[in-house]
Design brief:
Elements (H helix, E strand, L loop, with lengths): L1 H21 L9 E2 L2 E2 L4 E5 L5 E5 L95 E2 L6 E2 L9 E2 L8 E8 L2 E6 L4 E4 L4 E4 L7 E8 L2 E6 L3 E5 L4 E4 L6 E9 L2 E8 L2 E8 L2 E8 L3 E6 L5 E5 L4 E4 L6 E2 L7 E10 L2 E8 L8 E4 L4 E4 L9 E8 L2 E6 L4 E4 L4 E4 L7 E8 L2 E6 L4 E4 L2 E6 L7 E8 L2 E6 L3 E5 L4 E3 L8 E8 L2 E6 L3 E5 L7 E5 L5 E6 L5 E5 L4 E4 L4 E3 L8 E8 L2 E6 L4 E4 L4 E3 L8 E8 L2 E6 L4 E4 L4 E3 L8 E8 L2 E6 L4 E4 L4 E3 L8 E6 L5 E6 L4 E6 L27
Antiparallel strand pairs: 1-2, 3-4, 5-6, 7-34, 8-9, 9-10, 10-11, 12-13, 13-14, 14-15, 16-17, 17-18, 18-19, 20-21, 21-22, 22-23, 24-25, 25-26, 26-27, 28-29, 29-30, 30-31, 32-33, 33-34, 35-62, 36-37, 37-38, 38-39, 40-41, 41-42, 42-43, 44-45, 45-46, 46-47, 48-49, 49-50, 50-51, 52-53, 53-54, 54-55, ...
Length: 755
């Protein structure tokens, strides 16, 4: 300390002498600091021990918080409560990203309160593209080139995943091979096996596809397993491979022939079929060895059995045999079948399908059905003559057949329809991971996936604009439109019904397929009862146009229209209801007789509580075209300029529709599964999180939508006779009491159960 004082005193004396020589600072007095003086440019400060020191003025690290500094701890180091530049006190929430912090955007920001923005914490932080728990930030699959769906988020929050994104109909999958794939099998969505040429085996574990090492080059033609740790693959050269959950091992068979297919009733009872030239064999695996069970004079190409133990085998020259014990085999069909049969599958012993190629005659008949008694040849629609190689179904009314040049046909319990796959690669196998997830494989590594999502443009027999649609189920639907158009869909075709009036028709609803009401221009109300004489009964209840109709089954029916008109039918007479508005009403929908909603011009929404109609407060003055809900506290309204409102039982609130397009109709399968349609082909879906765009087939304006309450199917009608049907898979559909605004009331059916 003494040396410091002496040094400081020396500098002070030198400074004073300099001043005297220059005669320019005769009155200068250096700052005194403790027992000494500070040199020029220094200031006297206390250090952290309280000692007086001379520090450089205006410099970070001088123990003085000066202008522009947040802190000063006497050094220029980070991590000690004051940053090296004296600009941060190094606390989370100060708006400065300090060492050890991932983010810091100040009070009220999006950064985590620990300044460590963690993936999965529900906060979209710096460096994160998305958050798995904040799906509304992820956007739409349509923006990524898909037809519908919402992307997922990677576990690192650094990228979106498109695993949940889907296209209409069939879409291709990328797998690590370009070898032809001949068969597919799975024990579940996270365990799929594909087999093909040159010993190819590809496996999907729920996340990625990987090629398994087999050590063989023989072509593999069939695969089946009793579970993920007991899988058999068979092929040419009497090749049998067994998978134990970790590796594939070859099993010995005597002879040299091809095995085309494998199937088992359990892990200890496995069958394979095949042959060589004009000899066909059924092989059985029991007690850890293979033995020949059946020999025929034709090649045998496929095998399937039911839970009761009945086994069916098909092959060349129309061979189709069955056995209930594996020993005694009999012909299935009483008359010869002039076909090569390549595939067989059934939902039970009295509902079995075989597919193949017709050797002569009508080559559109490449499917044979066994009803438990005898065989019937079935015709493919659209005149397809291509050979079919494989068949699979989830139930008697949901069957797929795949074959030559990418042909896929679907059977809905009534008829076979061709489905567009957008490929010309021949398909050798079709297999369902479940009713909503079907895989078809074929040549050159082709793998197609179909998640039971299809969009179909339907021929409507009219070019008139259609304004209303309603149905009982997906096989019984009605549509109405301009020039007194009334159409009926019977599950196969749309047909014109003799019009009840010359008026243009805007709305349709019914209590049943044989009791349907339509409303339209100049107060027209007509009732369709096909079992009565006449079928139609038309009346005129007002001079005002009526735009929509809804009823509650056996209860009252309501029709709404111009100048606030509300008509009520009490099973005998129509009467006008008093309402608090003169604005035109375009839609009416109700959950029950005590919860009815009507919407229209100027943001108008009326509610009927069973006693009177009252005007509801809404946050808009836009025109509202349609109202629909899954319940009295879950109601949607849509209208001009992309308007979407939601009613939660207390108040109406605006929602982000992601579009400015005018929306004409809203309907859905239940809460969290709602659709809205509008101009230029606009179709939106609400998945319980937010509204997402869905791609459609064209740019025609879509005027009305009706979603079936008993199946995941919806019908959309629009301009120029447009009718579209889309199916979103056979997931469970909640029962909805109500229907699309003015277009009907859903029946309380339950969703179909598929095996």
């Amino acid at each position: 300390m003494q040396n410091k004082i002496v040094t400081i005193q020396f500098f002070a004396i030198v400074t004073l002498l300099g001043c005297f020589v220059l005669s320019g600072c005769s009155r200068f007095e250096p700052p005194k600091c403790g027992d000494a003086y500070c040199p020029v440019g220094h200031v006297c400060r206390d250090d952290k021990e309280g000692n007086k020191i001379c520090a450089v003025a205006g410099k970070c690290g001088n123990w003085t918080i000066e202008t522009g500094e947040v802190c000063d701890d006497g050094n220029q180091k980070n991590g000690d409560g004051c940053s090296a530049d004296c600009q941060s006190n190094e606390t989370c929430g100060n708006g400065i990203v300090d060492g050890g912090e991932v983010c810091d955007d100040g009070p009220g920001g999006s950064c985590h309160d620990t300044c460590q923005s963690l993936c999965g914490d529900g906060i979209l932080g710096p460096g994160e593209i998305c958050e798995p728990t904040v799906l509304s930030t992820i956007g739409s699959c349509v923006a990524l080139g898909y037809d519908f769906g919402r992307p997922g988020c990677t576990s690192s929050c650094t990228a979106r995943t498109v695993q949940a994104c889907q296209n209409w109909n069939w879409s291709g999958l990328e797998v690590p091979t370009d070898e032809s794939l001949n068969d597919a099998w799975s024990s579940g969505p996270d365990n799929v096996f594909l087999v093909g040429n040159n010993g190819t085996i590809v496996h999907y574990n729920g996340t990625t596809w990987a090629r398994h090492q087999t050590g063989i080059t023989e072509t593999l033609l069939g695969v089946w397993g009793s579970g993920p740790h007991n899988v058999f693959a068979v092929g040419s050269g009497s090749q049998v491979m067994h998978y134990n959950g970790s590796e594939w091992r070859a099993q010995e068979l005597s002879g040299s022939y091809s095995l085309y297919a494998v199937w088992g009733s359990g892990p200890d009872s496995v069958f394979a079929v095949g042959g060589f030239y004009q000899s066909g064999y059924v092989m059985q695996y029991r007690d850890n060895k293979w033995s020949r069970l059946v020999e025929r004079e034709q090649l045998l190409r496929d095998i399937w059995g039911d839970d009761a133990g009945t086994i069916f085998v098909v092959g060349d020259s129309g061979t189709w045999i069955r056995s209930s014990n594996g020993t005694d085999w009999t012909d299935v069909c009483s008359d010869p079948i002039d076909k090569l049969l390549y595939g067989v599958w059934g939902s039970g012993p009295d509902n079995v399908f075989a597919v193949g190629y017709a050797l002569s005659g009508d080559r559109t008949k490449t499917i044979v059905h066994f009803n438990g008694t005898d065989c019937e040849e079935m015709t493919n629609q659209q005149g397809s003559t291509a050979s079919l190689h494989s068949v699979w179904g989830s139930g008697p009314d949901d069957v797929y057949a795949a074959g030559f040049l990418g042909r896929v046909h679907h059977y809905d319990g009534r008829s076979w329809q061709k489905i567009n796959t957008s490929t010309e690669a021949s398909l050798y196998s079709v297999w369902g991971i479940g009713p909503e997830n079907i895989v078809a494989v074929g040549e050159l590594g082709t793998v197609l996936q179909f998640k039971a999502r299809r969009w179909q443009s339907m021929r409507s027999q009219t070019l008139n604009d259609l304004h209303g649609v309603w149905g009982v189920d997906r096989h019984n639907v009605f549509a109405v439109g301009d020039n007194n158009t009334v159409l009926h869909f019977d599950g196969e075709d749309w047909n014109d019904l003799e019009p009840p009036t010359n008026a243009w028709l805007y709305g349709v609803w019914g209590s049943a397929a044989d009791d349907v009401w339509v409303v339209g221009m100049a107060g027209t109300v007509a009732r369709y009862r096909p079992h009565s004489d006449p079928d139609w009964e038309a009346t005129k209840q007002t001079e005002r146009d009526l735009h929509s109709i809804w009823g509650s089954g056996s209860g009252p029916i309501y029709a709404v229209g111009e100048a606030g008109v509300v008509l009520r039918y009490d099973n005998q007479n129509w009467t006008a209801e008093p309402t608090p508005t003169k604005k035109t009403l375009y839609s009416v929908w109700g959950y029950d007789t005590g919860n009815v909603f009507a919407s229209g011009e100027g943001g108008t929404v009326l509610n009927f509580d069973g006693q009177e109609w009252r005007l509801m407060q809404t946050p808009t003055e836009e025109l509202i075209y349609s109202v629909w809900g899954s319940g009295p506290d879950d109601v949607y309204a849509v209208g001009k300029h992309g308007l979407i409102m939601h009613y939660n039982g207390s108040d109406w609130r605006l929602e982000d529709s992601t579009t400015e397009a005018t929306l004409f109709s809203v309907s859905g399968h239940g809460a969290g599964d709602v659709y809205a349609v509008g101009i230029r082909g606009t179709l939106l879906h609400h998945d319980g999180i937010s509204w997402l765009p869905v791609s459609t087939l064209g740019k025609d304006s879509l005027r009305a939508i009706w979603a079936s309450p008993s199946s995941p199917t919806a019908y959309i009608v629009g301009t120029q006779g447009t009718i579209n049907r889309f199916s979103l898979g056979d997931q469970n559909v909640s029962t909805v009491k109500g229907s699309s605004a003015g277009h009907g009331r859903a029946v309380s059916d339950t969703a179909p159960t598929l095996r």
